[in-house]
Amino acid sequence: ASVWPGRCYFPDFFNEEVKEWWGASFSALTEPGVEGFWNDMNEPAAWGQNIPYLVKFGEHYMHEVRNAYGMQMTIATYNGTRKLLGNKRPFMLTRAAYSGTQRYAAVWTGDNTAADDHMLYGQRQINSLGLVGMSFAGVDVGGYTGNPSPELMLRWNSLGPYIPMYRNHAETGTAMREPWEWGEENEKIIKKDIEQRYRLLPYIYSGFYQSAQTGLPLSRSLAIGYAQDENIYKEKYYNQFIFGDALLVAPVESTVLMADIYLPQGEWYRLSTGEKYTGSEVYNVTAPLADLPVFAKAGAIIPMQSVVQSTNDKGDGILELHIWNGSEPTNFVYYEDDGVTYDNEQGVYHKRTISFNPEAKTITLSEVEGSYVSKFDKVKLMLHGFDGAAEKSVDNIGSEIIIEY
Q1: DSSP strands (E only) in 234-314
Q2: What is the architecture, at CATH level 2, of domain 2-205?
Q3: What is the pTM of this model?
Q4: Active-site annotation holds for 185
Q5: Which of the following is catalytic: 43, 195, 253, 343?
Q6: What does the pLDDT look like over 4-42, one tens digit per residue?
Q7: Is pLDDT at 220 greater than 90 in this prediction?
Q8: Catalytic site residue 64?
Q9: Residues 74, 38: contact at Cβ < 8 Å?
Q10: Nearest to 244 by CA among 224, 258, 265, 267
């Protein structure tokens, strides 16, 4: 059948010998230094035709195993490249997936269109994928087909920092998606969104650790935490989601500059302004293209870092602990490792619980678990919504740290 390179064969990935052959063939890519791999058209799919159900893989016809074909290909690719790369982690992206694929690869929602409804629908798809265990998911920001307006590019990129896999991707012959293609002012806005993503990486990486350990997704439907709240199921608010433990994100169409948003029970702070809101209420809030409505829950603990140019960049070596005032104790499990090797499986990681106690007026970082030395030399406390509380910095030592405010 015809796919990207022309006419292709579809190997029988249900055959263990075929899996071994396939995995070993990636040496042609790993030897020059490639460490990321993308399995596409692996439903399997072909251009201009359907794969006949008469095709057999081993003892099984296509209609019996089609849903699992992409996953078997991904397993073969992952196992093969892991062997070839030794102690380095391969990055895997697959178009077709099945329950359990999250152990091997990230996924995305497939070819979308440059339109507001696809932007919003894509976010709901990501939330739904999270509900079935696939936390590492993304969309083609800006749309794969069609030409987005500048306003849509801005709005979609403002969602980017809060999408588990943030990337743009487009069909040949459509408008370029690079930030500098949209004018100087728009480039500055998109750059700010990308910088926010890099600043949030300590929070995001810890969230992925939580997901790997518990199955709780990084991008969460409001139904996970507020299932009994009837308002979250209303069409007007069902695009909203929780990112990690404590950030509520309200996607907004590119043509809307004032938005009705619903905040569930509790107290919330707008991330950009610090304004405080009482939950279980609907609010009409400003939603300029440079400021997507994002809210931190009272008691939120959000570890952040300085702006960096890549995940390999240490930045200024300061771990910022942003905490929003609340009346109830909260905690956050912070996790760090080298992000490159499998040494974490041998205990080379850095994990500690960060606790906020409003009654004692303390922030406590538990003793570090694991032997990995954090890339952050200092911890800087950044308090929001506290009267008269000053910023404080301490050395990032491995023993318990108690900070009074």
Answers
A1: 241-243, 247-249, 258-263, 267-270, 276-278, 281-286, 294-297, 301-304
A2: Alpha-Beta Barrel (3.20)
A3: 0.96
A4: no
A5: 43
A6: 888 888 999 999 999 999 999 999 999 999 999 999 999
A7: yes
A8: no
A9: no
A10: 224
Read off the pLDDT of each residue in 156-172 and give the average, rounded to a whole number.
Answer: 97
Q: Is 43 a catalytic site residue? A: yes
**Catalytic residue selected from 12, 20, 31, 111:** 111
In which residue are the tokens 């994928």 written?
Answer: 129
Residue 90 three-state SS: coil
Q: Where in the chain is the domain with CATH 2.60.40.1180?
A: 225-296, 301-404
For residue range 50-109, what is the model confidence (pLDDT) as tens digits?
887 788 888 889 889 999 999 999 999 999 999 999 999 999 999 999 999 999 999 999
Token code pair at residue 51: 């794969």
CATH architecture of 225-296: Sandwich (2.60)
Hey, what CATH topology would domain 301-404 get?
Answer: Immunoglobulin-like (2.60.40)
- Could you tell me if 95 and 69 are in contact, meaning their C-beta atoms sit under 8 angstroms apart? no
Question: Considering 40, 185, 328, 391, which one is annotated as catalytic?
Answer: 40
